[in-house]
Amino acid sequence: MERREHTRYAVHALIEFEWMEAGVLRREQGVTRDISQKGMFIHSNTMPPAKADLEVDVAFRDVARVPTSLRLRARSLVIRVEPASVRQSVQGFAILNKSYELQGDVNSVRNSERVGP
User: Which residues contact 35 (CB under 8 A, 6 or more apart)?
Assistant: First the structure.
């Protein structure tokens, strides 16, 4: 039985993400596996640690059938890290969006919900 609160969409888009680790700003790239209103799962060669605060920037230009400048920028929290396994050679991690902004050619949508206690 599916217990998820929000629908996940199988969208494969390029993503850039960054976080602070031991006082050093780390910047990496990946590809989304799926996206929902509350978060996303990201495949990447580099894994941030669980509970890391991330800044993410998703570019939808490569998934749209028509040219688009649609972007999703979010402040997020890493909630799960999945290393590569014998069955699955791809590693990835899940994030929960603390706030996000969806930016298009003309309009933008913001969400600044409080997450956690």
Answer: 8, 9, 11, 13, 58, 72
Dihedral, 69, 67, 54, 110 alpha carbons, nearest 10: 50
Q: Cα(first)–Cα(last) distance of the chain, in Å?
A: 27
Domains of the chain listed by start with CATH number: 14-101 (2.40.10)
**In this structure, what are the phi and psi dihedrals at residue 105, rounded to the nearest 5 degrees?**
-60, -40
77 within 8 A of 53, measured Cβ to Cβ:
yes
- How far from chain centre, in Å, is Cα 55? 9
- Span 24-63, pLDDT tens digits: 999 999 999 999 989 999 999 999 999 999 999 998 876 6
Which of 81, 78, 83 lies closest to 56 in space, CA to CA? 78
Q: How many CB atoms lie within 10 A of CB 70?
A: 15
Look up the pTM and report it.
0.81
d(CA 37, CA 1): 20
Of the candidates 101, 104, 80, the one whose C-alpha atom is nearest the C-alpha of residue 91 is 80
